[in-house]
Amino acid sequence: MTSDSEDAEYTARVLPGNAQFSAPASLTLLEAALLDGVVLPSSCRNGTCRACMSLLHSGSVRYRIEWPGLSLDEKDDGYILPCVACPTSDVVFEPIGPNRAG
Q: What's the domain count of the chain?
């Protein structure tokens, strides 16, 4: 199933402005956004700085790294790190930055 899921392409929508971009399963949300000209907050691009921290309103993601820089509570509350999150469905998310979570 990995080849099918890696070839899948989804749609990502960024709130609050409703920017939309094509989000292939093989790319992180940040990579896909940048390729489509959508600017998202970012810095380290490896899941540690949390500059890209976002609230996932709908959809699902998988992570390129085993444990991204989110607490279990943050993950349970729906926060994601687009720099290391690859879509597994259409997604709607809202960048909030590292200081607004909780």
A: 1
Number of CB atoms found within 10 A of residue 90's CB: 14
Residue type, 86: C
Q: Which of 30, 29, 23 is nearest to 7 (CA)?
A: 23
pLDDT tens, position by position, 64-88:
887 778 998 999 999 999 999 999 9
Give residue 52's domain range: 2-95
Structure tokens at 92: 């709607």
Taking alpha carbons only, the member of 20, 102, 101 closest to residue 54 is 101
> What distance in Å separates the CA atoms of residue 18 and residue 97, rounded to the nearest whole number?
18
Q: Within a domain: residue 89? A: yes
Question: Is the residue at 72 inside a domain?
Answer: yes
55 in Cβ contact with 30 (< 8 Å): no
